[in-house]
Design brief:
This protein has 108 residues and is mainly α. The chain is elongated, with a radius of gyration of 29 Å. The termini are far apart.
Length: 108
């Protein structure tokens, strides 16, 4: 066995033992909480859906990293315009409904 492979084996043992030590150093409520979290994540892991959630979070982080003041201002303006259009449409529908309800003869 070469020195390099012995070194890699030693590193793997250290990593494995430190990972188990961290797990066992947790308090009982923390361990129970971790078990509960893993039981809830199990269906996501089995169906491969957790990777999609991670991908979505990655995309969101990338968008935050790429955003600058101009992009944020432009998105705010678009949001304001869409909100105003939705508000005006809602008001127009409400007024039209009130006018139709005031009619004495129903429309044919």
């Amino acid at each position: 066995m070469s020195i390099k492979s012995e070194h890699n084996a030693d590193e793997e043992q250290i990593l494995a033992s430190s990972a188990t030590n961290v797990f066992f150093e947790l308090s009982e409520p923390a361990t129970e909480g971790l078990k509960d979290l893993l039981s809830k994540l199990e269906p996501l892991l089995a169906g491969g859906r957790l990777s999609r959630i991670v991908d979505i979070a990655s995309v969101a982080a990338d968008v935050v990293d790429m955003s600058d003041a101009y992009m944020v201002e432009k998105l705010a303006n678009v949001f304001e315009e869409v909100t105003a259009a939705a508000w005006m449409t809602g008001n127009a529908a409400r007024v039209a409904g009130d006018r139709v309800s005031e009619l004495k003869d129903p429309l044919p």
